[in-house]
Design brief:
It is a single chain. By secondary structure, this protein is α+β, with helices and mostly antiparallel strands. The chain is 36% helix and 19% strand. The chain has eleven helices and 17 strands. The strands form four sheets. Strands 7, 8, 9, 10, 11, 14, 15, 16 and 17 form a nine-stranded mixed beta sheet that branches.
Length: 552
């Protein structure tokens, strides 16, 4: 049962009571697993109250509209009272500290702190670099050097052509027959012309060297300033990371440098320690508050590349937060990762097609195509047991864990290679069925949005017109009922999460697939099903179509 009595703490403006009656809501048995969760009812109530507060801050609306991540933490006080904390990622309205929200782990925006002082000095170096790069005398010398280099190159080229023509004339005269005296005269002429060219070349190059010296002197000064800026920025960043001394439930402390030392990136990424959940946990530990549940939600419009929906909950980011939270959650009773539950260990494979060369199964949603890090059961392992004599790699392509439908496998290496070549050359037609929520677009068309991995939020993908790889999806409305649309998808490329991103992105269909917790709202399952494969059989040369009835 929750309690809503008054809270007697010195920082009472950070610990909020529920405005609604929370009596009767059972407390969570374990703390939220932050990378894959369904928000607890108390978390939803707390988030709603924070959202009401945000809507009331008229002075922040312009900034909030651009989008920001917020978090809530349900806590129990030392005297067993229940409340919640709120936080934002990064800074808000030019500050890290606001009365309603918990403070940062370290306030790098403090005007008297070392960060602002050193940042000011680095800024002065930046200004000096800009001044020197834009200095009229430096720009004039650089332009003069470039111009004279071209002029001298042309002058020397013309002088070489004169030498070449003179040599050609002498050769023609020799062919006609000349005396010894004339020959000696020609040798002297040749030597003189070469010497004249060398003198000209030496003179012009000397002129260039003087110009180059002046330009190079300034360039070296600018380079040295840039190197100084680089070193001071790197040192400042590392010193800053050392100030983020993160606590865990055991009372242990590690700074960000220690936390990231044994990770693949080895050094903390920019912005590490400034996300909402680390702030919330740090404040709770410092004030002897017991964390009970968490949730992080997006407020504002979606960013251009990532997909974020207003007021929707999202898992904590992987790149910045996963190493930090692995440390900070030690000592708490945390929910198990639901993706590590072996839900299908006793479920028989549904084989929808088989011949002596290949087999196709109807993979259930939530089952892996191939073995993952946690040794969960997968279609590959099942097929290995069913076909112990198969000499090929078996699995020809993959489906996302959350996607159900047809998965094709080969029984021999030769057939595996032949089928893979069909996939690579786009000679296998794949058709998916999805259920979209609140779709209002055309009945048929194409989505062409390039994709690349969102490295800080793996396995999420994002749209990038500059760096993304081409991704093209054809779509056709099958039927509509209320606010639900059954949509047929034909992917013309095979990018990770292509259909999910193309459905959810504002530049795509702007309607997430029902149950898509990465790009929409979590439901009982992701309503995406690989319904049909059509291709020419690599052995019989007959066209075959494999179907798996959709479960929704």
């Amino acid at each position: 049962m929750t309690q809503t009595a008054s809270i007697h703490l010195s920082d009472s403006d950070k610990i909020h009571l529920f405005a609604q009656n929370a009596d009767g809501i059972t407390l969570p048995p374990a703390f939220t697993y932050p990378f894959h969760y369904t928000p607890h009812p108390l978390t939803e109530m707390a988030a709603h109250e924070v959202q009401v507060y945000l809507a009331s801050r008229k002075d922040w609306q312009q900034e909030l509209h651009k989008g920001k991540m917020f978090g809530v933490l349900i806590v129990k006080t030392p005297d067993a009272q229940i409340g919640y904390l709120a936080a934002f990622s990064g800074n808000l309205a030019g500050s890290n500290s606001h009365p309603y929200f918990v403070p940062p782990v370290y306030d790098l925006l403090s005007p008297d702190g070392f960060f602002r002082k050193e940042e000011k000095q680095i800024s002065e170096i930046n200004q000096l670099i800009d001044y020197k790069q834009q200095n009229p005398e430096f720009l004039y010398l650089s332009h003069l050097l470039e111009t004279r280099q071209k002029e001298i190159d042309a002058q020397l080229l013309q002088a070489k052509e004169v030498l070449k023509q003179a040599r050609k004339q002498r050769e023609e005269q020799r062919k006609k027959g000349i005396s010894d005296t004339e020959t000696a005269e020609m040798v002297r002429e040749s030597q003189f012309q070469k010497a004249e060219y060398k003198r000209l070349e030496k003179k012009l190059k000397a002129e260039l060297e003087i110009l180059k010296g002046k330009v190079l002197s300034e360039e070296q000064t600018i380079f040295q300033l840039k190197e100084q800026r680089k070193k001071r920025s790197a040192a400042l960043q590392m010193k800053l990371f050392e100030q983020f001394r993160m606590l865990n439930a055991k009372g242990e402390t590690k700074d960000l440098c220690e936390i990231f030392r044994n990770t693949p990136q080895r050094t903390p990424p920019a912005g590490a320690g400034e996300c909402a959940l680390p702030k919330l946990l740090q404040y709770a530990y410092l004030h002897k508050l017991q964390p009970l549940a968490m949730g992080e939600f997006w407020w504002g419009i979606s960013p251009k590349e990532e997909i974020r929906h207003h007021r929707h909950f999202y898992p904590s980011c992987k790149g910045k937060c996963e190493p930090i939270l692995k440390h900070m959650l030690q000592g708490l009773n945390v929910e198990k990762n639901p993706l590590e539950e072996d839900l299908f260990c006793n479920t028989p494979l549904d084989i929808v097609y088989e011949d002596e060369w290949m087999v196709a199964v109807n993979k259930p949603a939530g089952m892996l195509s191939v073995p993952g890090k946690n040794d969960l059961d997968s279609v590959y392992q099942r097929l290995k047991r069913l076909y112990p004599e198969a000499d090929g790699p078996l699995i020809v392509h993959r489906l996302d864990m959350a996607t159900s439908g047809i998965l094709l496998a080969a029984k021999t290496k030769e057939i595996h290679q032949a089928l893979q070549e069909l996939f690579i050359s786009r000679k296998i037609k794949k058709e998916y069925l999805a259920v979209l929520k609140d779709y209002t677009g055309p009945e048929h068309g194409f989505v062409n949005l390039p994709l690349l991995p969102d490295w800080n939020n793996r396995p999420r993908q994002m749209v990038s017109h500059e760096l993304g790889k081409k991704a093209l999806t054809e779509f056709q409305v099958v039927r509509q009922e209320g606010n639900k649309t059954w949509m047929s998808f034909i992917p013309h490329t095979g990018r990770t999460h292509q259909l999910r991103v193309h459905a959810a992105h504002p530049e795509g269909l702007n309607a997430p697939i029902l149950g898509d917790e990465l790009y929409g709202v979590k439901d009982q399952r992701l309503h995406l099903h690989a319904e049909k494969l059509t291709f020419t059989h690599p052995v019989t040369n007959k066209e075959i179509t494999i179907t798996a009835k959709n479960p929704f």
